[in-house]
Records
---
Amino acid sequence: MTQSTLDILYQDNSLLVVNKTPGIATVPGGWEKDAPNLVELLEVDFGRVWIVHRLDKATSGVIVFARTAAAHRTLSLLFESRAVTKTYHALVCGAPKWDEHTARHPLRINVGHSHRTVVDHGKGKPAETRFRVLERFADHALLEATPATGRTHQIRAHLAALGFPLLADALYGAPPVGQDSILSPQHPALHAYALEFEFEGEPFSFTAPYPEDFENALEKLRAGH
């Protein structure tokens, strides 16, 4: 990926909003220190950007960066005070019987060699995710997820705890998806669909289209495959 392939949803002197491609890290570091990351790619075209929040490497969708130190302070306070509404769409294995459900399992992050987030009622930190069923299929469902807290892998861990892991999320218990399967997303099927907040007295709302493999899997489910 190069900076020319980045999907810029919005830009002004203070904000830069991107539809992140799955498979690219938000920031430098991690196990693949030399791999491309979103911050460095953006800075080629836009100069310095400030990190406000992050998406997992495998997660696609809306992410916002600040372009000034002042904007960074304001946005960071909005996220810390939970004044930002984050809406995710998720394709899951299994079809919940409920229409809406709020998961409140306490979570402990970075557990074991796989660095999973796990439910831990003794040492876990409070976490809350509201789920709503958008569409049901025979053995899968499209869900809306709205996290009220921001724990690492929160949505993935809560869905696994509920018995509905993300499609293609083997780390959290989803069955393996073969390359010859009609449902073969190349990453766990979680997409940061929308982001809403008020910045300097003005309301902002952004949505991002699904990545190709997510959209293809959804179309096949709708077709009854």
---
Amino acid sequence: MSEPGLFLRDPDNPIIRAADLPYRASTVFNAAAFRLDTETGLLLRVEDLRGLSHLTAARSHDGRTGWRFDSQPTLECDPEHHPEEVWGIEDPRATWLPEREEWGIAYTAYSRRGPLISLAMSRDFREFTRLGPAMPPEDKDGALFPRRFGGRWALIHRPVPVNGPAHIWMSYSPDLRHWGDHSLLLPAREGAWWDAGKIGLGPPPLETAEGWLILYHGVRRTASGSLYRLGMALLDLEDPRIVLNRTDEWIFGPAEPYERVGDVAGVVFPCGWVAAPERDELRLYYGVADSAIALATARLSDVVAFVRSCPRPPMRRATDRP
């Protein structure tokens, strides 16, 4: 274990388990995070006893304890009106869009042809307006940027090819419904690297003075299964297709028993974080072993400084020639 110690695990981890919910469920994990009024909220992925997932909101005054859960699923799949959700909805990421004064939620809809990215809007995480699919299957790990670039919205996502590695891509839209200008953003590495073969975005991009901070997971295939660990990158503020820095080493990985043992062992999978620049704090909410929710905290300035010190990629844009 050689993490740089940027993120410190909460001593009360896991902070949310399925047994905490007010109704029966199998597991809870991979939650979007948001701030609403004076509270921290999570939009939890909850897997029911059939094996299908829905989303349920939880709220807390301090973001650590005293979680209050909706008494029933907050957002369920609706295959009658949205057939792409026939096998559930999963892994949300929530981005506040100041221009629209609402949250843009990218989530995985599980269709008969595979998982795909859908979008929904909400102001209060009680009522939602679905925009429908943004990307065809198979595609996962989507999140919106909070503002437009050149008049267009931007979405980070991870298409899964039939053959070959799975990279992180970016696409643009004038209206959040029609997407194009697709480009490769961050390639998975090759060979024995910790992030070779398949990578995917974690929480939505976070704007800092140094650039857009992104956290991503890398999946390493081992003799005993897949191992999920985390790395980071900085993107240019005005043209986020330009990668300024990228960590070579993974910065956070499964180490504690609750991260190593569960429905899917060896997984740390963040979908949400909450930044408090006035306190120089970054709170990371992550799924552990596809079984529970855990929390880790860091000094935001330390995280940005660490990523800024990491190597500049040989190709600033993934489409550049080395």
---
Amino acid sequence: MTDVASNWRAVCARVAAAARRAGRDPGGVRIIAVSKTKPVEAIEAAIAAGATDIGENYVQEAAAKIGRIGTAARWHLIGHLQRNKAVRAAELFELIHTLDSVALGEALSRHALRRAQPLRVLVEINSGGEATKSGIAPVHVGPLLAALGLLPGLLIDGLMTIPPPGPTAESARRHFRGLRELRDQLRRDAPSNAPLRELSMGMSDDFEVAVEEGATMVRVGRAIFGEREA
């Protein structure tokens, strides 16, 4: 049986050590415990151990879990979002990490207007140009931000990426560094609703490298909850 609490503490220690190596405040990195396929009991164990942010891949699965756990944690959508699920996503999640088109932004904007606060979103970047992954190419991000800047109800709070698989964690470093540099470049001309404060990058196999390169959010599943269930 997976010791979720022990794993959570170990991940926290590794994040803190990576932040200190980079001369950063460990408090500037938020750990999102990714609970895809995991039962409510495992999520509750993570929350009891100190997790404040839970990430889910699918709207329907998350809705069932949120219905049982409620607001004991902040909920993040980290999986691809279809437009026909935008209304439910806007209701359920504090932050959506996978905005990658004007059409999806428009759908979220319409439903975000019903909220008391703007809906926080991240633009997903396909940093490796992989045809099998969603996300937008870095060269197209500027025009997308300009279009999203015209949409009410949205706060474009940063960028997210999943680098191509590589033989070691170090293989991802150039992608993480590239995302940080892209964010810094975009900030100069970003619209007023795009503060671009967040960099969501790094998962169980490479989150320490991501922290060293400036991640403000790391999405960690297996290192906390154990192997995913089918």
